[in-house]
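Batch queue: ligand-bound targets. Current item pairs a single chain with coenzyme A. No template structures supplied; prediction is de novo from sequence plus SMILES. Inputs echoed for audit trail.
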Amino acid sequence: MITYRDASSLDVPVLVSLDKELFPYSPWSSGQYLEEISAPTRRFIAALDQAGSIIGYAGVFAPGGAEADILTVGVIPEHRGQGIGRQLMALITEWAISQGSIAMMLEVKTDNLTAISLYESLGYAKLNIRKNYFGNGLDALVMRKEIP
Ligand SMILES: CC(C)(COP(=O)(O)OP(=O)(O)OC[C@H]1O[C@@H](n2cnc3c(N)ncnc32)[C@H](O)[C@@H]1OP(=O)(O)O)[C@@H](O)C(=O)NCCC(=O)NCCS
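Prediction returned. Tokens below.
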């Protein structure tokens, strides 16, 4: 069974190593994670397997009364296609709504069709392209979902 809990600073070494695998084009450093994970306007959730190992995670920035920004969502390859990404998105979105967010925003690599189709199925609309957002030649598609 997969369980979900808040990620904490104790999880940072694992998140940093998973980031290198899942986001080789833009991994976060340990310093970045420590800063983000302890900020009150951010929430990070980890998905755990039966042994308690982190197999997925997601983070959101929700300042309240404004757009929330999905900071990251990733699931290790062995556990994809089981609804974990969708559940992580649901949990961070629920929290962003509870903070008074007016809309959800995210940036996704333009060639990441799997993630884009997940976001479209959740009601995100394509907004625009940010050139070189993830580095030279790596463009981002900006997507947005209104909170009714
Ligand atoms: C994107 C990602 C988080 C999805 O995680 P997941 O746990 O496999 O997703 P789910 O099982 O919840 O699937 C959710 C939806 O994603 C889409 N999806 C999943 N696998 C897919 C595939 N192989 N091809 C196309 N769409 C796919 C489908 O819309 C699916 O919905 P459905 O199962 O109802 O059809 C995962 O593929 C991942 O970690 N990718 C690498 C990191 C990444 O790119 N993160 C997003 C950065 S913005």
